[in-house]
Design a protein that fits this description.
Elements: E1 6-8, E2 18-26, E3 35-41, E4 53-54, E5 66-73, E6 78-85, E7 95-101, E8 112-119, E9 125-130, E10 139-148, E11 151-161, H1 164-171, H2 188-202, H3 281-298, H4 300-307, E12 316-321, E13 336-342, E14 345-353, H5 362-375, E15 379-384, E16 408-413, H6 414-428, H7 433-447, H8 463-471, H9 480-504, E17 508-510, H10 520-534, E18 536-543, E19 550-555, E20 560-568, H11 575-585, E21 594-599, E22 607-609, H12 610-613, E23 629-639, H13 651-665, H14 677-684
Parallel strand pairs: 14-15, 15-16
Antiparallel strand pairs: 1-11, 2-6, 2-8, 3-4, 3-7, 5-6, 7-10, 8-9, 10-11, 12-13, 13-14, 17-18, 18-19, 19-20, 20-23, 21-22, 21-23
Helix pairs in contact: 3-4, 3-7, 4-6, 6-7, 6-9, 9-10
């Protein structure tokens, strides 16, 4: 959401009788924090009484409409969660204001990643609002829930208060007495003098506290910030925050590496999902299915991300393994069952799993389709290392299409499972440290060499004959094996996109997916003909935020991989300025990076390695000053693996490494394109 926008909750979910709002932030120093508060406001914009003000010392409403659930650690900071029962909110309350405040002179501009999220009763995140302009304020209204025609809506507010929580509370009619409200002293000396005066007035000669010094029994409208406590639960002495004497730029200290308690480096950390006992394919299939399904049930956001593409509703999920179901004379045991309940209705899917590159068996899948049809289940999901081709939700498994039953058959790759886990762990979060740890252990398991869940890892039986046929020029045009290699290449590219997208937290897609009206089968046939004639496999990746399409080319004749990107020329400025600026941007790029100037017409422009161009950027300019420069092409070359598998010397591993190296060492140093530049160029090439 953007600042000032609003959304009705019923448009996002059917289960909005209750909701959980989470306020999150992170601190560069690891020490910054804030306190949340909630105000119930009537039609006049004021609280009905001071009891409508909820904070850490008044965390629960008597009617259960508001409950502060406390802080939870996240990967980068902390998160405060607040539960609302919207059906229990009194009728004369029209708005629920959700805010946070800092203390002791701290400001929200010192915190990072300020955000508010709202989830429904089943934990499905419905909306997210990021505050990017907090500034020098000590209190902020993150958002508010409000009624319109008996419907609850959420508004993204992001309004700050320099006067802190006192100013915010006063605006909403909370009664603040002068002796209870906290005021910030003008100087440190004034603060110390005031503290000494209060101490002398509060103590008698015997050191006892006088009745006048005791805190009032009534609710303080503006609570004092929470301080540290000692082992007995008593408030510890509060240290004064040191104030900077100058306006020097704040420097974030580097985090100290976590010290290991291991006696030596050979010790292995204990894991929730061990892989050491896996001895056979059956062990791997059983363990992988159980690990995945258990994490899906325990991390609702992850389970939802995995099952949503298959038509599963958002609801309470339960998962099972090794379930016996009757089928003819002998019962069948699918590897797993997923059940989702929503509004009293069940959605059920049978799961058939394969690991270690083993193919799916058509008879097994057909039997599960028949069982699902008889029992009224909605889907059968196959899960293996294989990746489905574009335009088809399935891998190469044959079922009897003459059997008319309303059961959907879907395929999921282990690479897609790992991608979803990466996105949630590293970029989106699941709002809970324990759930994050579960996902991290799942990802570690999937990526372990012994799990058998490495995704697509075999170019197929046609790879070696086609590679050799291109090398000795004996591959004939129209050879069906060339089409098999093209299909394997497409599966590999889809997996490369998943892995790179998971690392970046951005969309990475094969460029042909955006080209409408193109038949996938016809495109593969055309690429197979090109492979026979030119001996090259080629693909384009569209990376969100990159200055252009990332092109990957595998030349089977020279056994070289080429990764490249084309940068459009700036619309303003001088060519020499462009060249100098490009070389400066690539200061940390590999010295063997090839840079080529693109010019109008068929003639090629100047080119050279970055090592040669660094002292003389002007060498990138054409000798004829009237020649118009249209852009620059940056390329890296790498030796191609020969084996068909994913071993260290295999073709699949070399492609993965080439893309990762090019993006991390070249593309990250380039400026993002102006809005629409990449898309326009891509459409023009269709």
């Amino acid at each position: 959401m953007t600042k000032g926008s609003n959304l009705p909750l019923t448009a996002l979910s059917e289960n909005v009788g209750s909701a959980i709002i989470s306020l999150g932030w992170s601190s560069p120093t690891g020490e910054g924090d804030a306190d949340v508060s909630v105000l119930l406001v009537d039609a006049g914009g004021k609280v009905r009484s001071d009891a409508d003000f909820y904070f850490y010392n008044n965390p629960v409403a008597a009617d259960g409409s508001v409950q502060l659930l406390g802080k939870e650690p996240t990967e980068n900071g902390s998160e405060d969660r607040i539960s609302f029962d919207l059906t229990a909110v009194p009728a004369d309350v029209e708005r629920i204001v959700v805010a946070a405040s800092r203390y002791e002179g701290a400001r929200f501009g010192e915190l990072d990643d300020l955000k508010v999220t709202l989830a429904d009763a089943v934990g499905e995140c419905l909306l997210r609002f990021v505050i990017e302009d907090a500034g020098e304020v000590s209190a902020i209204i993150f958002g508010e829930l409000y009624r319109r025609a008996e419907e609850w809506k959420f508004r993204a507010v992001g309004q700050g208060y320099e006067s802190g929580l006192a100013g915010l509370a006063t605006d909403f009619g909370v009664d603040i007495e002068d002796d209870e409200a906290e005021t910030e002293p003008a100087t440190e000396a004034a603060a110390e003098t005031a503290a000494e005066s209060e101490a002398k007035a509060a103590e008698d000669p015997a050191g006892r506290v006088t009745p006048e010094a005791r805190p009032s029994a009534t609710l303080q409208a503006v609570p004092a910030p929470r301080g540290p406590v000692d082992a007995e639960g008593e408030a510890a002495p509060k240290k004064r925050a040191a104030r900077p004497r100058t306006a020097k730029k704040k420097v974030t200290p580097p985090r100290a590496p976590v010290k290991s308690l291991a006696e030596n480096e050979s010790w292995r950390q204990a894991r929730l999902f061990p892989v050491s006992a896996l001895k056979s394919d059956r062990d791997r299939e059983t363990r992988a299915t159980s690990v995945l399904l258990s994490v899906m049930a325990q991390v609702p956001r992850f389970g939802r991300r995995v099952t949503a593409p298959f038509g599963a509703p958002s609801g309470r999920m339960e998962t099972y393994t090794e379930v016996s179901l009757p089928h003819g004379d002998t019962p069948r045991r699918p590897d797993g069952v997923i059940r989702v309940e929503r509004a009293g209705k069940l959605w059920t899917a049978l799961v058939e799993t394969k690991t270690n590159g083993n193919p799916l068996r058509s008879d097994q899948v057909q039997a599960y389709m028949d069982i699902a049809a008889r029992r009224g289940y909605e889907a059968v999901i196959t899960l293996s290392n294989d990746v489905a081709l574009e335009g088809s939700p399935l891998v190469d498994v044959k079922i009897d299409r003459r059997r008319k039953h309303q059961v959907a058959l879907w395929h999921l790759s282990w690479a897609e499972v790992a991608h979803q886990a990466q996105m949630l762990i590293r970029h989106e979060g699941v709002g809970n440290a324990a759930r994050t740890w579960l996902l991290q252990d799942l990802l570690h398991y999937l990526q372990h060499e012994n799990s058998g869940c490495h995704g697509f890892q075999n170019m197929g039986a046609a790879w070696v004959p086609v590679r050799n046929g291109i090398g000795d020029e004996t591959l004939c045009q129209g050879d069906p094996r060339a089409l098999e290699v093209v299909e394997s290449w497409e599966r590999l590219i889809r997996q490369v996109c998943l892995r790179l997208g998971g690392e970046l937290g951005q969309k990475v897609l094969p460029a042909q997916r955006t080209r409408r009206g193109t038949d996938p089968g016809a495109r593969r046939t055309r690429l197979a003909e090109q492979l026979c004639l030119e001996g090259r496999l080629q693909a384009e990746l569209r990376v969100e935020g990159a200055p252009g399409l990332l092109t990957l080319s595998a030349d089977l004749r020279t056994a070289k991989l080429r990764t490249s990107v084309e940068i459009p020329a700036p619309e303003q400025g001088y060519p020499l300025t462009w060249a100098k600026r490009l070389v400066r941007r690539l200061a940390e790029a590999p010295a063997d990076l090839h840079v080529e100037t693109l010019v109008e017409g068929d003639a090629g422009g100047p080119r050279g390695t970055l090592e040669r161009l660094r002292p003389e950027p002007a060498d990138l300019l054409p000798k004829d000053s009237s020649t118009r420069i249209t852009g620059f092409r940056l390329s890296l070359f790498k030796g191609m693996g020969s084996g068909r598998g994913s071993a260290e010397s295999g073709f699949i591993r070399s492609v993965d490494d080439a893309v990762q190296r090019f993006y991390s060492s070249v593309v990250v140093h380039l400026d993002a394109p102006p809005s629409g530049r990449t898309v326009t160029k891509e459409r023009a090439s269709v």
